């Protein structure tokens, strides 16, 4: 039995890569009901098909920009996992205000609906791009984090706990590099690499979803939980995938060329989960770090972290151990249903 057993749970962005896996993970905790809110009609239909008819899931078509829709979606909810966001770095660079409307204003709308309903707990899903952001997407996700943490300061007598979870790239998620490389190899190449020296944090979707729930169990109020993740170099990823998968699609390894195309707008060479400025307020746990609230977050309890060591510096994808080609392939093969033939 967990804190989700018998609860009514709302997952925004529940058709996305993280959101849909959160749906499955939450269902395994025996909640009373899971409401999935998303703008993606086909995604809701596909999710409904993938789940048993008797699953206690309600499929809600709606946008976090719509306060009235959120008010209805939030009725009688106990726990919110907020995963709805615009996440494509380059598209966000060309559509900055639309990104603000969803990632910033949309997050505040969800927070307000949660406060109005006086729910028990609220966990927002964030990204490594929020740490010292250099992109529109990262900047809006940092603001989203700050809105969630600040909600603990004006909740009044409500006992709602607000916190965030921050992690890097999710393996085989929609729009990510591994499915792109796979499609390019399947088509005979070339494999388009922005910069072979680029490094990225990476983890399977299932593991990311599990750790979101773990963070929810640990949260008191105001923390940002940063999941520990392996990292890889993009050039190593491309070479490993060509060597492993080109023969499976009828090509010699030498048939598939690598085309260096340069960084796209908003991209940085190395990702950062914890910045130098954040490190003084960060503590290390077994499988994650926790950035402690730097403002007076009502409900925050430091007792959970008194024995944890302070982090001494930033945590970037360049400074962690990089996966080898064999380890990369093992990680890809660990994802259920991927790669598709």
UniProtKB/TrEMBL annotation:
Domain of life of the source: Archaea
Signal peptide: none
Pfam family, one: Polysacc_synt_2
Domain Polysaccharide biosynthesis protein CapD-like positions: 9-291
Protein family (similarity comment): Belongs to the polysaccharide synthase family.
PANTHER family per UniProt: UDP-N-ACETYLGLUCOSAMINE 4,6-DEHYDRATASE, UDP-N-ACETYLGLUCOSAMINE 4,6-DEHYDRATASE (INVERTING)
Protein name (database record): Polysaccharide biosynthesis protein
């Amino acid at each position: 039995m967990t804190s989700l057993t018998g609860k009514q749970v709302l997952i925004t962005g529940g058709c996305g890569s993280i959101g849909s896996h959160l749906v499955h993970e939450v269902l395994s905790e025996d909640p009373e009901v899971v409401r999935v809110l998303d703008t993606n009609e086909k995604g809701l239909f596909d999710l409904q098909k993938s789940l048993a008819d008797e699953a206690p899931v309600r499929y809600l078509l709606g946008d976090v920009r719509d306060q009235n829709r959120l008010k209805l979606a939030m009725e009688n909810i106990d726990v919110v996992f907020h995963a709805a966001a615009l996440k494509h770095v380059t598209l966000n660079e060309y559509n900055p205000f639309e990104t603000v409307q969803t990632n910033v204003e949309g997050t505040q709308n969800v927070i307000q609906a949660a406060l109005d309903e006086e729910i028990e707990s609220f966990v927002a899903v964030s990204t490594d791009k929020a740490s010292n952001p250099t992109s529109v997407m990262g900047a809006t996700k940092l603001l989203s984090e700050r809105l969630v943490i600040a909600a603990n300061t004006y909740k009044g007598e409500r006992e709602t706990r607000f916190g965030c979870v921050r992690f890097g790239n999710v393996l085989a998620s929609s729009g990510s590099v591994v499915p792109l490389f796979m499609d390019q190899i399947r088509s005979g190449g070339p494999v388009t690499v922005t910069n072979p020296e680029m490094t990225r944090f990476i983890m399977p979707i299932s593991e990311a979803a599990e750790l979101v729930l773990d963070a929810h169990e640990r949260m008191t109020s105001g923390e940002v939980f940063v999941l520990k993740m392996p990292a890889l170099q993009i050039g190593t990823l491309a070479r490993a995938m060509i060597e492993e998968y080109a023969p499976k699609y009828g090509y010699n390894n030498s048939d598939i060329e690598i085309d260096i195309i340069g960084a796209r707008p908003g991209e940085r060479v190395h990702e950062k989960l914890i910045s130098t400025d954040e490190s003084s307020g960060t503590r290390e746990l077994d499988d994650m770090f926790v950035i402690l609230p730097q403002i007076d977050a009502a409900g925050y309890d430091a007792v959970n972290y008194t024995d944890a060591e302070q982090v001494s510096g930033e945590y970037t994808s360049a400074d962690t151990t990089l996966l080898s080609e064999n380890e990369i392939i093992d990680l890809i093969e660990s994802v259920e249903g991927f790669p598709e033939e």
